[in-house]
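Researcher: I need the complex structure. Ligand is FE2/S2 (inorganic) cluster. Inputs:
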Amino acid sequence: MTVVELLIYITIAFVLQVAIFGAVAFRRHWGIYQDMRHRMVGFDTDIIGEADLSRPELDHPPSQEAHWKGFRNFRVSKKIFEDRNKNVCSFYLMPTDDEPLADFQPGQFLTFQLNIDDPSGEGRKPIVRCYSLSESPGHDHYRISVKRVPAPAGSTDLPPGLSSNHLHDHVQEGDVLAVRAPGGHFFLQPGNGPIVLIGGGIGITPMISMLNAALSTGSKREMWLFYGVRNSTEHVMKDHLAALARDHDNFRLHVCYSSPQPGDVEGVDYHHRGHVDLTLLRQTLSLKPYQFYICGPSAMMEALVPALYDWGVPKQNVFYEAFGPASLIKSQPQDTLSPHEITSSLPVSVTFAKSGKTVTWDGSSASLLEFAEDNGIEVASGCRAGGCGSCQVSIDEGEVEYPQPPDFDPDLGCCLMCVSRPTRNLTLQA
Ligand SMILES: Cc1cc2nc3c(=O)[nH]c(=O)nc-3n(C[C@H](O)[C@H](O)[C@H](O)COP(=O)(O)OP(=O)(O)OC[C@H]3O[C@@H](n4cnc5c(N)ncnc54)[C@H](O)[C@@H]3O)c2cc1C
Ligand code: FES
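Model: Output:
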């Protein structure tokens, strides 16, 4: 064999090797691509378009100008149960003054002041609670859906939830409730990008408002709902959600039962056994720039929100709301502080001027409200999540900071004790 022939053989062998390597790589990537396409069936991105924002004709259409200050009276026009257990009840609310409703963003909440019998037998007392609007904007009424809260398991001395049980047991159709205008920073962001809604238990209420809003206006936005409950007895608005999934190609419903009952059938009543978790999301969702909206029990949120960040979801694409004391530090991560970024140099002293007490803050309390209560100082509170304004007090001296921005805007020179912490020596009118 000549040198030239040898060179030709080597060149052919090299070209063959490159071709085989290329073919194998192409096959592998084609498989992944086909798999992704398969999982995206029904979600052709071309169909994403502007929503038709037309709304039904109403005598008094909701308007931005109709926002009101303080409390306004609403009559309960209808009360219906939404689950088999009759633990979740919807209240339909019409203003008694016949003026237009204030418009709202799907996901926002109303704040109620209720006069209830004090369980300690000290007569009636006002309490304040927030409830998410569970219907889309654009109707002649508001709707909230309230879950009855029992006493903590095993407790013999604590009363069941005051507001939820009062609403279920004592508020009837025709009764009047005092309601503050819609508010809150947790709502569906405008745009056409794909959306993943995750609702755990009663955390489904803002998700239903968002879904109804998007789907009823003809939006072709890709929407997913992952809804976790224990079983069919707790499954809220089951028929409504199934009908939405049946009627809208751009909406996918995934219901998870953590402990199905003997009669609950997988594939009929629910889609997955277990909790909504990252494994399920990874198995189900394609690789897309989703926005995630999460509301549910704190255990679910504490697990899921950091898991989404670890998965690589940008923080500005994760929105969440807690229905109680928020144990998570960040709700809108783009402009919030993490615990180690809190700027106070500890310890600082906090003076409660009205109570005549000065106490040292060492940073171990979650909020000024918790700190005050731990030190025997009584402070009014409602939502305990920065939404209702009940815990607002004026600051005589010093400064506070908010690990997450509150939904309620405190007055100048005041702070919301339930979601704030001192940054230096502080004197409060409490
Ligand atoms: C923005 C927002 C939106 C919300 N949306 C909804 C919604 O759409 N639907 C809904 O159902 N809820 C919603 N909530 C929750 C709601 O506001 C109330 O927190 C909930 O109804 C419980 O209130 P309650 O008065 O019934 O219970 P509470 O009286 O506040 O009691 C809560 C629990 O604490 C126990 N308890 C009482 N005293 C003590 C004590 N001394 N020590 C320890 N435990 C005690 C009670 O037994 C009960 O289990 C929302 C909350 C927020 C902040
Ligand atoms: S208790 Fe509602 S804002 Fe603090």
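Model: Summary of the prediction. DSSP finds seven helices and 19 strands in the chain.
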